[in-house]
Each structure stands twice: as C-alpha cells, then as structure tokens.
Amino acid sequence: MLHDRLDRDYLYVANKEDGLTIWNIQNIENPIMVDQITKTELSNLDVMNLTQQGDYLYLAIGNTFNNSTDLSGMAIVNVSDPLNSFVEDIYTLPNSEGGSGIVEVEGDFAYLGAMENGLIILDISIKSDIQFVSQIIPQINWPDTNQDSLKVNARGLAVRNDIVYLCYDAGGFRIIDASQKTNPVEIGRYSNPVMNGLPRAYNNITIDGNLAYLAVDYCGLEIVDFSNPSNIQLIGWWNPYNCPTNNWFTCPVHANEISLNKNCKQIFLSTGKSDMMVIDVSNTSSPDSCNYFGGVSNNIGTWGLDVYENKIFLSYVCTFGIPFASNWSGFKSITFNSCTLSNKELEIQNENFGPNPVRNYFYFSNEIGSYNLCSYDGKIINKNQTKIDVFNKRIDFTNLKNGIYLLSYPSNNQLKTIRIIKE
After folding, report:
1. Do 235 and 370 reside in the same domain of the chain?
2. For residue 400, what are the contacts with CB-CB under 8 A and spacing of at least 6?
3. Of 285, 314, 334, the domain-final residue
4. How far is 364 from 351, CA to CA, in rounded Å?
5. Which of 300, 334, 368 represents a domain boundary (last residue)?
6. Over the stretch 218-241, which tens digit does the pLDDT of each residue have?
7. 13: number of CA atoms within 13 Å, CB side?
8. What is the pTM (predicted TM-score) of this model?
9. Are strands 330-335 and 258-261 parallel, antiparallel or unpaired?
10. CA 304/CA 15 separation, integer angstroms
C-alpha cells in the first residue's frame, strides 16, 4: 500500500486476489475506488506489494501464502493518469513457485524479492519491455544448518547505491553488492545469535545511514550497524514480549512492514493482531514504545503500512488464524502531528485530564468511546484490569501496578495519546 509519491490524492493498494486498486483520498474520511487492475490483467497472479517511481508503479505479483505454487513476477503499471491506469509489461520467472514478497526500484533497475527464488534484478529502462538481468539465491543453510527451504525467503528489502539490504526470513539479514548487475554477490550476513535453533523471521527493513531497522515478527524490532558488512553488530532491540521465550502464535506483536520518520526518530510498525506500534529510536541502543493504534481485542490484524507526511495508512488482512486471527480486510487512515509523539508533547496533552500522577481514578473532560491502554514498554493492558466509567468520565487505575502508561483514543480522525503515571 502506498500514497501517491507525486503528492496527488491517491492511494495504491496491493489487494492480493483483487489486483491493484486505486483510491481517491481527497476526502480522507470517504475514500472512493476510482480504478483497478484486475488479477486477470496480471497473468492471473495476486498483487502482494508495490512501489512507485515517477508515473509508474512496480507490482510484486504471485501469492506468497500457503506454500503457493504461483510464479514469481513483477508488473509495471502506468499511473500518469490514476483514473486510467494500464499495464505496461509483466515479467515472470519461468518454472518458479512461491510468488513475490516485495519490489524496490533504483535507477533503471528493479529488485524483486522472489521469496524462495531469492533476489531477481530486472532492467526496467524500457517500461514496456522488462528484461531479466540476474538472480541470486543466498545460502539457505545459515544461520542454522538443514533449514526448511520454504522458510527461507527474500521477503523484504531496501536498495541504496547498488547495495541491496535483504530480509531473508529464517535466513536472517543479508547484504548483496549489486554494483555488477549481472553478478550480484553477498558481502554480509547477520542473525541474532540468541535465535539460533529457534524460529525466526526477518520480514522487512528500512535503513538510515549505516543503521538497519529490522522488523522481526514476534521478536519485535532489531537495530543493527552494518558499517562493516562482514561484522554486522546488533546495537538495539525492542523486545517487549521477551523473545525467544515467548510463543510465535500467542505473541501480541507480529512486526511486518516498517517506516522510519527520520525527523522524529520514530519507527512505525505494522504488528498484526496489535495493529500498529510506534517506537522511539532517538536512542538507538534503547528503542522504546511511544505510541500505538488498535490492539489485540479488536479481532483484526494488519499487514501493510505506509506513512506519508502526517498520514498513516494501515491495511488489514483476513487470515485463517495463523499466525494471528483477523476477520476483516480493508484499510484505515490515521492522521498524526509529526514529532508530537514524544514524551514532552504527551505531557502537554494532559491539561484536560487528571490527576496525573494517578492513584485510583483518572478523569477526562471529553467523551472517550474506544480506547487502548498499554504499559510504557508496549504491552497492551487487558481491559479487565481497568474499567471505563463513561457517565462519570473516568478510568479506574486502582488494580494497575505503579509505572508509566500510555492511553490512546481516536478523536476527530486523529489518534491522541496521553502519558499517565500511576503511583
């Protein structure tokens, strides 16, 4: 999912079996679908991911779920007029299976994360004539030997100056030198050693300088320094649910898509059944939760995420209960005030609420319908532990332990958050 990068009021959604859908979001509260590229126009392959360069969208096509037998492929769609989009060309890897997880573009080349088929480099200089350049399947049997090949997939990636930073699922994080397009070479690899012999999933990545921010599913967020690709170092880990002692299927967090707000030093993570977490990375050695949206009690879960200016877009998926249950598909849009999620700004919002610190009842002056409460390390507080009294406009904190809590609630199509100290 992607907001138009030419600053037009359109949202592009990878709608899996429904193809590519294009939405007019000029009225953000009433999005209207204005165009669609159907699956039948895409060699009957699902749309899994997309990116944009100028007037063109690049679609990663081919279903990646349930041991898919879909081909790995990419399509180029012309969106110079989003109301009349059309397919320029389609590429599929012959005799492949497993679909495609992601595509990124730099210059005249597209880099396709082709799941079990590794990284594919494509020449896109002529949009109507995609050309295969090369393919690399990094070593599968690392960091563990005899790994299940179906769990080692080119799933997430970033590209900068001909270097590909690849999230390789159970195969950890890899760095590929693609300066010689016909002969890409792995030059670095990393996996958190505490996960050796245990399930792991390096799902997605964003980079800033020599730092990579890695979405690692039920293990949260890892921050690594790759300034020396042959000796990549873990420098920070947001791990609120004590991975690896937690359980993949019951964990509230499944970190997947990721976006970095460089000015605010905040990471936005789609987190499955808990929707979205915001991580303060101003201190990269000690990343910490600073906000969130949704929660485990709403029975829906996110997959996709995009942040554009002051807007956050979350896409939701229906699942069969693995690794989390979700019974609704669609997207939600949220607005936020950039860089107002810091502790200082959260304190400013407290003027209409109190007392703060609180011992028993926390009162609010405005109507709060739905709300979520989490501890400062990002753990969602079960609402059985608190009780909201709408008539008296108060929340009972009596049974909570002393500490810092974040109260989030929707108001005027924005997510507002208050930091509360329980003593």
Report:
1. no
2. 381, 385, 386, 422
3. 334
4. 10
5. 334
6. 999 999 999 999 999 999 999 989
7. 27
8. 0.82
9. unpaired
10. 10
